[in-house]
Structure formats: structure tokens, C-alpha cells
Amino acid sequence: xxxxYKARDARLDRLVAIKVLPxxxxxxxxxxxxxxxxxxxxxxxxxxxxxxxxxxGSENGIDFLVMELVAGKSLDQLIPRTGMRFGEILRVAAQIxxxxxxxxAAGIVHRDLKPANVMLTPEGQVKILDFGLAKLTQRTEGEGxxxxxxxxxxxxxxxxxxxxxxxxxQAEARPVDARSDIFAFxxxxxxxxxxxxxxxxxxxxxxxSAILRDDPKPASExxxxxxxxxxxxITRCLRKDPARRFQHMADLKVELEELREESxxxxxxxxxxxxxxGRSSKMLLWIGAAxxxxxxxxxxxxxxxxxPVADAPLHAIPLTSFPGxxxxxxxxxxxxxxxxxxxxxxxxxxxxxxxxxxxxAPLRLTTDPAYDSDPKWSPDGRLIAFERRISRTEMAVMxxxxxxxxxxxxxxxxxxxxxxxxxxLSWTPDSKAIIAGGADQPNQPTRLFLISLETxxxxxxxxxxxxxxxxxxxxxxxxxxxxxxxxEKSLGVGDTxxxxxxxxxxxxxxxxxIAIAGISPIRRPVWxxxxxxxxxxxxxxxxxxxxxAAAEGTSPARExxxxxxxxxxxxxxxAARRAVFTTAVQNSVIYRAPADGKGPAERLxxxxxxxxxxxxxxxxxxxAFYSNxxxxxxxxxxxxxxxxxxxxxxxxxxxxxxxxWSPDGKSIxxxxxxxxxxxxxxxxxxxxxxxxxxxxxFTNVTxxxxxxxxxxxxxxxxxxxxxIWKVPVEGxxxxxxxxxxxxxxxxxxxxxxxLYFTRDDGAGGVWKMPLEGGPETQVVQAVHRSxxxxxxxxxxxxxxxxxxxxxxxxxxxxxxxxxxxxxPIEKTIDLGLAVSPDGRYVxxxxxxxxxxxxxxxxxxx
Length: 861
Known about the structure:
Blueprint: E1 3-9, E2 14-21, H1 29-43, E3 53-59, E4 62-68, E5 73-74, H2 75-78, H3 86-105, E6 108-109, E7 118-120, E8 126-128, E9 135-136, H4 168-171, H5 178-194, H6 204-213, H7 219-222, H8 228-237, H9 249-265, H10 281-304, E10 316-318, E11 326-331, E12 337-342, E13 351-356, E14 363-364, E15 371-377, E16 384-389, E17 394-400, E18 408-414, E19 425-427, E20 433-438, E21 447-452, E22 458-460, E23 470-476, E24 482-490, E25 493-500, E26 512-514, E27 523-527, E28 533-538, E29 545-550, E30 558-559, E31 567-573, E32 578-594, E33 602-605, E34 611-616, E35 622-627, E36 634-639, E37 646-647, E38 656-661, E39 667-672, E40 679-684, E41 691-692, E42 700-705, E43 711-716, E44 723-728, E45 735-736, E46 744-748, E47 754-758, E48 766-770, E49 777-780, E50 783-790, E51 794-799, E52 807-813, E53 819-825, E54 828-835, E55 841-858
Helix pairs in contact: 3-5, 3-9, 5-8
């Protein structure tokens, strides 16, 4: 219907797609009507799996749409000739069903659902395109308040759509409703499963005839690895009679999600059809003979052929599907077992577990209430090393036998209080020493040490610069001659290094950085058993991907086959030709509730990703927050009711976060690790090019404005430890404000007398000091991160999470000193707390679902 161009929005400094109706077609009023209908239909929907329409207009006689630029490929380019992997089908199909269900609830029937109109981003997110044929229907009773954009205007007897995916009623130009999309969705499922179209013909008329009269060959006849339950779903979608199909896409979505859960848990089995087995011994004999002859023939062809036989594609299957978080796996020397960390059935404490590959319950090795992590199996199989977080500032390297037994503390280190990822471990090939990361003194960068298993003596291997977080994630090559590791410059930002070692594991020369073309940043290097390649991660955890490249970065990297988006923490067994990696998910939702605690909470801002750190604009009409729904963490804004979400920043960084409004509501400050270090930026609340406020070698985070808008406060380690500083908005020298420690979230009180801030040390909580300077005193103890808001008469805050992750919204009354619980939060509290300017509502973010599983790849190469 149009031509699509890639363009840059100069006002908001973002890439967009512009769809143009060519001049030769502008005289066609029906095309123009559909063009406008596409804009109105898609713009009426706010859903992460539906392409966003930004604008519609006409310039010099050219009609155009401005829409979200979607990176990736359409589904018709991605479906293999033999169909997609079953797990991938369910993952993609559930997203499509969720988006179409949203459209149907708004009274919109797509009417052209097909693989070419479904995009898949590199992160695996679905985007549905092209609502040019959408029909706007009258909603039914009980569907809620939706905006009706235009009335349906398809003349009876007019056939619209793509022939191969039409429903029978659509092909006959009869009235259509949401069930027509369900039929098209069934055709799409069939093609994703089999690699073939459900209805085919040599001409359009023969294809329509097949749709009206024929049933496609059952998918189970084309693929033997598809569960019968899923085949029934496809069949029900493709019923000729609309009354016999699924009646609502929402029900179909639930069915797909249940199948996905059963598949990932191993409860969904594939039962071979009866035709696959003979009933008599004679038939079995013939089958056996034919099988032997086939093997002999194949072997003969292989031996006489000069061409190698292609290896079967790699694919991952769930190895664990326990509740909570299972990650950081390591293989036993023979590859028959793994050791990993898990927070247990009750999701209340991280311990170390061992599990056989395959069925069976894991064996729990540790029971200490401390946080145990990063287990590594020794090459000789005798011990498992792991790390234990003893306190907020201390960590230890421990060992334990694989079948359980006495633990041994091998070494103890200081750890930075804000260091969220414990540095990591690696054994030497002879199993006589461990490489571990830690600091000799508090607030020093973590270094890598070689620790003798026999004596506990430790020798330093690296010396990171003083202003970095330090070195971690060590990985020693199979021959023990090269150490790969990650140096964290600031939170979440760093480089991968290689360090040559002598035969006694002493450093030989200086570390050298490894860069892989087209991938940045890279972290967590892992050696392949051949010693010539490494695998690295890139991207934030939910959207992270694994890449394989030459160890010295001399050739382009390629994405790890069989992994996909959300893959991290790879471990490989050369002995068993197996690989295991972690796949993670976190769904955080921003909730709203009455600030007096006298009403229910409601989901306000939600997607399938993480929505966090909400902040009201001064006039209460907009909300700023950060989200990773676009693949990286960026600042977004929306209306106060949660609608009209738009991405505000497009920083080239994994994380751009902590938005705060200026007092006049015209600008927003934020922090970002773009450029290799955390710095403070501001941006117009309407979008545009960000302005960098700090520009130094230090970690500068969690900014906020002074009440007069002239200063920006922030947390920095310029003095060697975390303190609150401030800098003029228009530029100038930074000024230190606190002296005894200030971790984050500075906040001027409404009366202009006090500066509030948080500490993340043993004292913790919210503190305050006179704005003109003076003693620093604690106001509230044990607050969760930066979750507090100061109002005229008190403080709203969320305390640190309890043992089960629960928290609450509480209020401290300045007049009485009493603390009152306004509402409990049973799920895990996330970052951010906000109160509307009129005092009516409070916002917070909570993680409704979080977890990770271990995925197994067999026959890994």
C-alpha cells in the first residue's frame, strides 16, 4: 500500500519509519481511507507488541505516517522450511495472541494477520504491523472504556486481505469479526509449525477454494515432535464455521501460555501416532530390516562423498524449571552433573546445589543463611568452590565436597557495598589453586588473586586503576596460560581483558583489552574447550545474548546457536559435548494506590519487561519512568493515567535510568553509562538531544534538582567514597555536600531547610542535614534503596525487603514521629517511589514475576 523509509526525527533525535502513500495512488480515495485507518487503528492501541504510530500528515500532496522503527525481520523470513522449534513457536505465538487480544478488546479486527505483518526484533520481541485493512467494530458490553476511532466502512461483497490467510467468511466477502483473525492466526501457527502454508493453490481462486472446502494436512503428519494438545489448538483455530473456533483471542492466549509452561516444565509430552508402529511381528521385522538397510546406505553415501554431512541444528531444552532463580552453573569434569546456585523452593535464600543431567531432584550442598553464589567444580572433581557474602562489606571463598561435607573458608576479602555482582572464581587446570576477585581493604577496587588450595596463600594477578570498580569474572584458558577477565570501570560498564601467565601462573606482561567488532559492551568471557575461542555476553540480562569469537578478537563474532535473547552465564563440557546457560525474566509493574492507604492498588504502567522508578511531573499530568521494553534501559514518559507511553531517551548504553523532573517541569535529569562511565544528563521533557552535566572519571548517579532549579545534586565517589555533590545546571565546578557518606537520591525538603539523602552502609536509611551545612542525622532506618519521598508533613518510604521479599509503603509523620503502614507489598519491591503533587496517589514498582532457569544444549560443538 505504500513505501517505507528509514528516517531521523530531528526534534526528538530518534530513528523512525516513514510510510508514504506514493503520488500516483493519492487519487485513490479507498487507499487514502485505508492509509488513515491504519494510523487511527494502530494509534488507538498501546501495547509493546504492536507498532507505535507517532504521527500522520500530508506534505506537498504526499500522505505519510510516522511510526516506530522496528529492527529485525518479518516472520516469513524467519520460518525454516521444516518449521520453527516448538518452544520458539509458543514464545512468539503467545506475544502475537496477547497483542491481537488487545486490539480485539478495543473493537479492532486486524483482517490481514500473516507472517509478513509480524516482525521479530533481535531481542525476540514481536511487533504486529500494518493495520491498513483493520475493521473498527462496535465493542461488546463489558469490554471497558475504549476509544472508537471510526466506523466500519467495508462495502459488502468486497474481498480484502491476503488470500492464503483469509478466513472463509472473509474470502466470501461476508461480515467478519474477531474470529476471522483467529482463523488467520491458526494459519500462521500451522506455517510456523510445519514450514508450509495451510492453504495453497496455483491461483488465487484455487487458494480460496481450498480455504472454503479443504482441511490442511494435520501438522502431526508433517512433524512428529509436536504435542497433540498443540495440534488440537491449530485445528480448532482453522474450523470453517466461526462458531466452532476459539471465540476470543484472550482464551487462545491463555491456552498457549499454559502449553508453554507445561513444555518448559517437562510435563508436556509427545506421543507418537499409531501409524508409526506396526501391529504384527512381521511388520516389525520389515521395519527393522528397512532401518538397517537405510543405515548401511547412508554410511556408504557418507564414505564415498567428498562433502561433509551438515550437523543437526543446536537447540536448548529446559534443564531446570524450579520456582525462583537458578543460575551460575558449572559442569562436573565428566559433564554428567552440574553445580549451580538456587534460591530454593520458598525463594528465600541462595544456596549451592548439585544435579545430575536429566531427571531427578537436586542435592543441596549449603544451608548457611548467607548468600552463596558462583560455584565452580574443580577439574579433578574433588571439590566445589563458591563465594559467600558474609556481610554487606565482606565476602569469602569457600570449598565443599560435591556430595556434601565440611566446608572450608579458603580466603576472605572486602567487597564494595554497591557491588551487586560478586567477582567470580576460576580453577587452575591442576586443581591446586583458585583465581578469585576481592579487595584487601574496604572501598578499594577488587583485584584478581591466585589462592593456593594447600596453604591459602594469595598472590595478586591484576592491579586495576583506583577509580574503577575492579576486576572480576575470571576465566582461565584450558592450558592455564591465558587469563580472561572483565574490568568494571563503573556500574555495569567495563572491558574484557586478556592476561598472559607463566607456567606457575605468574603475570607475564600487562593485560590487553579484547574488542569484538560490532558488539559492545562485552563481559563474562568463557573459554571454549579448544582454547582458541571465547564466548562473551552483551546486553542487559533480560535482553542479553551470547556471542562466540576468536580468543584474540581477530574474526567477527557470531551469535551462539540455540540460545537467543535473555541468554547468559554459559558453561561448556567438552567431555560430554554439552552446554548449559541461564535464561532470565523479570516483569516489574508500576502500581498506583491512594496515598492514604484507603483503597486498592492498581496496575498503572505495565509491559512484559521491567518498568521502574516512576516520578510525577510537577503539574501531576505526566510520569517519567525507566523501562527495558526497547531492549536497553531508557527513560520513558506517559500520561498520569499510564497511557501514551513514549520513549524519551535513546542513549547508546545498556542502562539509562533514575529520571527526575526539574521544578518547572520542562526538563528531566537522568544518569547513564553511555560513553563508558556513569554521568549525569538532562533532556527536554519533550525530547531532543541530551545535555551532559558531569564529565569526569568518576561514577556519578541518582541526580535530583534543587528547588530553585539552579543546581543538580548527585552521588559521586570523587572523594574516594560515596558522597553527595552538587553542580550548577549551567555548568561549573562540583561542590561536595555531605562528609560522612551519601549513597544516593538527594532531595531538598519542600520548606527549603533540609537536604535528605540515603546511605547504603551499615547505618543505612534516610538521613538529613541543614541545607546551609551542619550535622548529618538519621531520619528513617533501613530504607529500600532510593525509595522515599519527602512531603510537607512527613516521609513516604518502603523499608528493606524481608526474608520473603515482602515490603510495604509506610509514612513517617514529622509531628508525632509515628510510622504508619499504608499498604503491604507482598511481591518483591523494585526501585522508585512517587507521590502525586496533589497528595492523592502513591506510585511504586514491584516485581510481579522474576526467575531464571538453566537450559541444556546436547551435542554441543
